[in-house]
Structures are given as structure tokens and as C-alpha cells.
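Reopening this one. Same input as before:
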Amino acid sequence: MNRVKEKLKSAEQKRKVFKQQQCIFMTALERSRDQAQDKTKPVCSVAQVQWYMEDHCSNTTDRRILSLFLEIMEDLMEVLDILEGLGFTGSLMENCRILLCPTTDISNLRAQFPHDEVNRLSCVEARNYYGGVVSLIPVAIDLLREAARTSAGPQKEPEKAEVPKPQPAETVPQQAMDSYMEDQSASQNGQSQTKKPYKETGGWNAGKPSWKPPGRPKV
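Same output, byte for byte:
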């Protein structure tokens, strides 16, 4: 979300610069529409502005302001892509996608208070021709902010209970191992104390019969 905030902040700063040059933007559109012989209908889409800049704009100042408009639109489209990549969904996200589509008809779009882009247009005719295109950026920024705040974001998966793993033989607790070694040592010491020397059970007298007292054997 930090990246979304940074992109929106950058777009807002560019929008302020663009708003200060709104009259230059109107003049650039007017000249481009004149060269394109397209003055009978309002500016109705982002694709139309791009067409003016690429094919019907010969003035450096006009090209610069039209490029700024398209650059802001690209930034807002990137914000939408980031939100969708993070798993944001809902009707607001769908509305943002439609609004930012380059071919969407925006001729009837009008920014409302506190935005004053439409009110700054000089006359009713200018508002009819350019009201939609000057309203697009502030409306899109507001809609993206609202979508980021209220749309369904990525759902956090519930934490799974950790299943205890069987303890391998080589990781027997040291305390148990020490106790086992002490028992084995004690057992070995006891056996060594009771065991007879080898010479009494083996060697030269190992095969001799046991001694018997003299006298007649009993029948």
C-alpha cells in the first residue's frame, strides 16, 4: 500500500501543476481539434487526446501540456494495476477500470465540489466541449482513493495449527540420555565386582573334575 500512496501523491502533485495550466490545455486542444478538423464534437476520451498529440500537434508548448495529461493518466492506471495485483475487488474497482479505459466516453463526466475545473471554463460551450476531459483526473483520483479505502482487499489466510513432529532418535533430550548412561555405568560396575577371575574358571584347571573326599562311595 505504500507504493499506492506514493503514486497517488505523485499524481496529485502533477494534477496541481496541470490545473494551473488548464487554460494552456484548453488552447492546445482547440488548436489540435482545428488541425484535425474535429471541432463539431466534444473531447470524449483519453485516446482522442493522444490522437491529437501524436497526429495533430505541431506546437511544443501544446505537446508538453498534452503529454502531462497523458502522463497523469498513466500514473493513475498504474495505481489501479497495483491495487488489482494486491487483490482489491468490488464495484468501485470496476468503476475505476471503466473510467480509466482510454476509449471510455467521458464527455458527460463532471467533477463536483470541491473541484472547480469545470467552473473555470470560460463559457457553456467550453464546458460542453471540455467539461469531461478536465473532470477526468480529479474524479479518477477521488475514486481510486475511495476504492483503496473501502474495497475488499487481500484476505489474510487463517493461521494453521502447528502439528507436532515425531522426535527423531538422534534428538533424544540430553537429560534422558545422561540418566541412561548413568544406569549403564552402574550396571557394568556391579557386574565387574561379582565376576570371578579368569584363572578360576578357565586355563589349566578348566577341564579337571571337582575334588571329592576319600572313602567308599555310597551305593
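So the earlier flakiness isn't reproducible anymore. For the record, The CA atoms of residues 176 and 182 lie 10 Å apart.
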